[in-house]
Design goal:
About 95% of the residues lie in helices and about 0% in strands. With about 40 residues, it is an all-alpha fold. It starts with a helix and ends with a helix.
């Protein structure tokens, strides 16, 4: 049971990392979009 809990903890950690990276990508894309808007 404790092993499952540890795995779940790792999964949560992994998901939080993915979420942070996803946020960075969204931020980057919004920047690119703004720059693109200025070019047009």
């Amino acid at each position: 049971m404790s092993q499952v809990y540890v795995d779940f903890d790792h999964i949560l950690l992994f998901l939080s990392q993915v979420y942070v990276n996803f946020n960075d990508i969204l931020l980057f894309l919004s920047q690119v979009y703004v720059d693109f808007d200025h070019i047009l």
